[in-house]
UniProtKB/TrEMBL annotation:
The lineage of its organism: Bacteria, Bacillati, Actinomycetota, Actinomycetes, Kitasatosporales. Pfam families: Recombinase, Resolvase. Residues 149-170 are annotated as: Disordered. This is Recombinase family protein. Residues 4-153 form the Resolvase/invertase-type recombinase catalytic domain. Residues 161-274 form the Recombinase domain. It comes from Streptomyces mexicanus. Signal peptide: none annotated.
Length: 477
């Protein structure tokens, strides 16, 4: 069984606002865990605002130590040692656990340190001690300059991100913007990022690596969810907020409205929650939807070599498999089953579409409430600045407001995501069977699952027979 590890991320705003995005930290850690064949089971995320308070209790860090000691996780993956253990004291507490429980796993993205070995511990102690001492004056000055520019909404240098013109990164590249919007619509309709990545690579879209057409999964994801799309200025991967509590707006043309962008981000995030880690591509329409008529086990599609001897045929069949816990006694050629189900489902959805009209245009109802909270936050921050209240008071009042704001924003994102998903799916009613099969496979599956909860494939008896539709039983929702 795969080792179960926890991922630790931390945002720190004490180094002149330097904040390596939590999202990026987590992504890199997940990739590292993947690489080591560990299963990332939990993310511990601390938001460290130590600019205000020197000895903030890192709640998630404490929880992680507890879980580690209790054996709920078998190790830790962190972005770097500095983020994990700032103080020698924290490091010693960690090392103590690694002493007690040998065989624990440990890895960081940026350095090759292993707390599981004595050498690694010595190294870690030295590194933490140094990090604690050094000041990095020069690099701080440069960072401060970068931050200043960012706070003014100035664009960062470098090549233009996909979506904007190569010769002028403040202007939208209409072709690229169109490709982005189209891909975002697909995401909302349930298409996976991997599918869009494949298509973009084929069409030479996106921001492929120099001299190739290849792009990493996370690059495509970033292009479609980049805060820059709505004009938000980011700094080290995080949205930058101004003194008024509002995001700093960049000096370039946006591609998305806030609603569009939030909806896409929410859809991507939700998909990740539902399908953590890498999911295997489901190549056949009814894999996992079809069930065996005898034992009711789930049936997957598979290519059977003996089925079409001598040819490289793409003929496949749905086969109840002993390996997957089934009886292994039922199988059917796949293509006619797929066609039959597609016809039935499309017919049903056509008749449904005539009954239910598309939902009317509608706005999220709590926009005013959110605005009010933003104003409250800005006023609190201003009150502290003008010395009407102390930092301590501010920090007492702020978290509750921030929580409310974040909850509302999440709710708004969900609201628009659901509206847009409904719209994106609304146009299936007029598909022909051929158009249906031209869609990406997960879109096809989604359309099928909209109408059916399963397809039962009944046994057909021995020998090769003509396809009998009556032995395929759709289970309607
Ligand atoms: Zn079976």
């Amino acid at each position: 069984m795969a080792r179960r590890v926890g991922i630790y991320t931390r945002i720190s705003r004490d180094d002149e606002g330097e904040a390596l995005g939590v999202a990026r930290q987590q992504r890199d850690c997940e990739r590292l865990a993947d690489l080591r064949s560990w299963q990332a089971v939990k993310v511990y995320e601390d938001n460290d605002v130590s600019a205000f308070k020197r000895n903030v209790v890192r709640e998630e860090f404490e929880l992680m130590l507890k879980d580690l000691r209790a054996g709920l996780i078998d190790g830790i993956v962190a972005y770097d040692l500095d983020r994990l253990a700032r103080q020698p004291r924290d490091l010693e507490r960690l090392i103590e656990i690694y002493d007690e429980r040998p065989r624990l796993e440990f890895a960081t993205v940026t350095n090759d340190i292993n707390l599981g070995t004595p050498d690694g511990r010595t190294m870690a102690r030295i590194m933490v001690a140094f990090a604690n001492k050094s000041s990095h004056d020069a690099s701080r000055r440069i960072k401060r300059k970068h931050l200043e520019l960012a706070q003014q909404g100035k664009d960062s240098g470098g090549p233009a991100p996909y979506g904007w013109r190569k010769d002028d990164r403040t202007k939208v590249d209409p072709e690229a913007a169109k490709a982005i919007r189209e891909a975002q619509r697909e995401i909302l309709a349930g298409v996976r990022i991997g599918t869009i990545r494949t298509r973009w690579q084929e069409q030479g879209l996106g921001n492929p690596r120099e001299g190739t057409k290849r792009m990493a999964h996370h690059q495509v994801e970033h292009i479609l969810t980049n805060p820059r799309l709505v004009g938000y200025r980011t700094y080290h991967g995080e949205i930058l907020y101004g003194d008024d509590g509002q995001p700093v707006m960049g000096e370039w043309e946006p591609i998305n409205t806030l609603e569009e962008w939030e909806a896409v981000c929410a859809a991507v995030a939700e998909r990740k929650r539902k399908h953590p880690g890498r999911s295997l591509a489901r190549k056949y329409l009814l894999s996992g939807i079809a069930r065996c008529g005898l034992c009711k086990a789930k049936i997957r599609g598979q290519i059977n070599q003996r089925w079409e001897p001598g040819t490289k045929a793409t003929r496949f069949r749905y086969q109840c498999s002993v390996v997957n816990g089934g009886c292994g006694k039922v199988a059917r050629a796949g293509d006619p089953v797929d066609r039959l189900i597609a016809q039935l489902v499309l017919e049903e959805q056509r008749s449904q579409a005539m009954v239910t009209a598309v939902p009317s245009e509608q706005r999220w109802a709590r926009e005013v409430e959110l605005e009010q909270i933003n104003t409250d936050i800005a006023q609190l921050v201003e009150a502290e600045r003008s010395k009407q209240i102390t930092v301590a008071t501010l920090l007492q009042l702020l978290p509750a407001k921030e929580r409310m704001r974040d909850e509302l924003k999440l709710e708004r994102a969900r609201f628009y995501k659901e509206r847009r998903q409904a719209e994106a799916k609304g146009d299936t009613a007029n598909l022909t069977v051929d158009e249906f099969f031209a869609l990406p496979i997960e879109r096809q599956q989604e359309i099928v699952l909209h109408s059916l909860s399963a397809v039962i494939i009944h046994p057909a008896g021995r020998g090769r027979r003509k396809f009998d539709p009556s032995l395929i039983e759709p289970v309607w929702r």
